[in-house]
Amino acid sequence: MRIIGSVNRTLTLGLVCASMAIVSGCANDKPKAGDAGSGGTSNGTATGTPIVVGEFGSLSGSESTFGTSTDNGLKLAVNQINAAGGIDGHPLTVKVYDDEGKPDSALTVVQRLINQDKPIAIVGEVASKLSIQAAPACNAAKVPMISPSSTNPKVTQIGPYIFRVCFIDPFQGTAAAKFAVNTLKAKRAAIMTDQQNDYSTGLTKFFTQSFTQQGGTIVANPSYTKDDLDFHSQLANIKALNPDVIYVPGYYGQVGPIAKQARQLGITVPLLGGDGWDSPKLVEGAGGAGQALEGSYFTNHSSMENPDPAIQNFVKAFKAANSNGEPDALAALGYDAGQVLADSIKRAGKPADGDYTSEAYRTKLRDAIAATKDFPGATGKITIGADRNAVKPAVVLQVKGAAFKYVTTVNP
Amino acid sequence: MHQFTEQLLFGIQLGSIYALIALGYTMVYGVLKLINFAHGDVYMVGAYGGLGAAFLVGTWLPSHHIFTAGLPSPIGAVLVLLCAMAICALLGLVIEQAAYRPLRTRAWIAPAIVLGAAAAYIAYSIAADANRNPASCVAIALIVWGAIAWILKTSQSRRTATVSPRLTALITAIGVSLFLENFANLKSIFTPDPRFFPTIVNIPDPARHIPRTVSVLGVDVSLETMLIFGLSLALMAILTFIVTRTKIGKAIRAVSYDADAAALMGINTDRVISFTFMLGAVLAGAAGVMVTSLTGTAINPYIGVPFGLKAFVAAVIGGIGNIPGATLGGLIMGIAEIMVVAYGSYIGVPDTYRDAVAFFLLILILLVRPSGLLGKFAPEKV
Prior knowledge:
Chain A: This is Ethanolamine utilization protein EutJ. Chain A: Belongs to the leucine-binding protein family. Chain A: Pfam families: Peripla_BP_6 (PF13458). The complex is a heterodimer of chains A (412) and B (382). Chain A starts with a helix and ends with a strand. Chain A folds into 2 domains: 51-167 and 306-392, Rossmann fold (3-Layer(aba) Sandwich); 170-300, Response regulator (Rossmann fold). Chain A is 46% helix and 16% strand. Chain A is elongated and about 70 Å long. Chain A is an alpha/beta fold. In chain A, the strands form 4 sheets. A 7-stranded mixed sheet of chain A has the order 8-6-10-11-12-15-16. Chain A has a 5-stranded parallel sheet with strand order 2-1-3-4-5, sandwiched between helices. In chain A, strands 7-9 form a two-stranded parallel sheet. Chain B has a domain at 18-104 and 222-368. Chain B has a two-stranded antiparallel ribbon with strand order 1-2. Chain B is mainly α and 382 residues long. At the A-B interface, helix 1, helix 9 and helix 10 of A face helix 1, helix 4, helix 7 and helix 12 of B.
């Protein structure tokens, strides 16, 4: 009886494990694998064996608009490239995995991409924290990784195979500080930092440096974490110190509630932020359009109002492809990451043995990405610098109603 | 001094939310000696329920401008709160009836499901290997399953103890919690994406920058803070009334004192337990709506986890099973957390240590009073 019991128990355990494996396997396979590839089949010019581009992003979770925007942008780029004949007749196909905004699953899905899907290169992530988690795996496997919009300097410092098509935080933090001093005439600033987020701590550091260099004072720098619900205490301390501006370099999920609680306490000074604010959900969290965030500013990669034809063509194509959905800067950067990658593959030339994923070819591709110069992207001209970062201007946007209005451009 | 009072009020605001959730933990522990780990997730469902109700109310009562700023809509807000509380009451009832009651009354059910499924699978495989047709394979599997369940049921009823050990209920509670979180996480249910409450009570007009404040102890406090504090206080008063002045309250106290004796006195203990779960769930649901609508924080399937954990600690600090203790524990936790954020830096404690300090407080209090501040110290009966 005992033996049967234990056999049963072992079997049950096995069954449970097996069913969990099946369920989780299904769940992981689900995220629209190769959606973009199917777009490539409609043209008829690109008919060769597809070249796989890996992508990981937060398609769900608390930063889900980051991942979905980037994904839509990248797919638009891939579809355009395939419609124009692909790369030497090979269509590009995107294999995308959802990391739910969690550092551990970012690493897991990237390892899975590298080992199982054999991509030519990998595009991702938006959040610096997640890029920093996954980049060492790409670098070790010598798979070029292009982050569309991770701005923390540490990301590309991980190794020679890690690139980005956006500016970095020392510049973004400086741009915000310059704007605060020159346009808002701020002398005293308070900063609210998400202490567990590399992006937020990085921006805090560079904003502080630049702001104090220009003669300003940081009067308070309290911190919060992603799980916090109550920011009253920090905000009350800030209010007592009477700053001219409050810098909140966080993600949209927390910025809305922080703004709302700040206004509840009677804080009337403008809030200032970074590209982590760039989400259609931002104003929703602040009580909706015209509420707590009205009139606040943030630095971003590009403005969709820019009349530059490169940007307007992208906006038009994006709206056509996404049933009139408005693109944000993260979508534009996803698009640029795809375009820069395709351009680099073309410049790297055809592999002699026809294998786009061999180590020799990926090294060649790496060099081609590093040599990108003045590429006309949807977020401006992209030149990859010596430290594998793109050098680009930043724009300052103002929250007006549910829209982000262009205010000014800050050049590097 | 002025600023200290202000911070103290924020502490009380946060603490009264912890207290509301802690009451659910403490009451269920009182009647069942069970830590209901799914309680934090009831808070989460309450927030979603309120959000759904807000959209429905916004559609039904457009004249109340639930979504427009500047116009308070007391009727809409009250309806939203009541809807969320009703949803949570139902959820509390379902959790108790579906997950915990079978463990108390029919202990054979859990092994019957697990062992039966395994045996049925083996039977199915054997039958399938013998090339029988699929329908008869399924039939054989079901017969085996039924037989296992019957054997377990009859063997169980012959024993004297038909109640599963307390640990089983505890693990079931963790299971229910995980189920609720992951169920809410599904793409077809709530999805993991954050959602935000529309404005129910108006906030200061940002164009004119006039905060809507109430003066308390010489401090201007926002309307939202006062609402959270006032509503919590009212709910706790109603709870106290129910527990101390009504017949069902008397029954709850009797069951928590001695369940077996209460049953012998003619009290329907199962009904009392169900009612206690509903009462706790209602308070958690109200807390969920109040926090997410008034402080504007995001709603996602995991918001119940940190809140549930801290409320549980609050209940333990106050002495689990003791109703005033839960309120006291909640207030201590809330005030301690806010004080760390506000003044911790003066004594070298960074404000990121707010949770650490709260849990350190737990250890400290349990070292001095192992049964909590208001808990009764009773030696185990042998």
